[in-house]
Amino acid sequence: MAQHKWHKEIKAWADGAEIQFRHMSCACWDDCSDKGPLWDKDTYYRVKPSEPRLTRIGEIENPALCWNAIELTPEVIEALKVANIGY
Question: Count of CB atoms within 10 A of residue 44's CB?
Fold first, then answer.
């Protein structure tokens, strides 16, 4: 019998790890609610990294879908203009 798609993450969550999710159309990871992950088929899951990793604008497939994860400093706004992303 094949394992569940998120077997590793489900086991980690059962063992107390924090889980993050992101929808297929977004590049932003968010913490799951206190109720736990939904394990939805149209969502990606991962064990929350122990150290946050800064994401460069160029690594985000569609930054327009991810404004909540980007601090809009003057440098970021300039980078978005240079990248012609339309801020």
Answer: 16
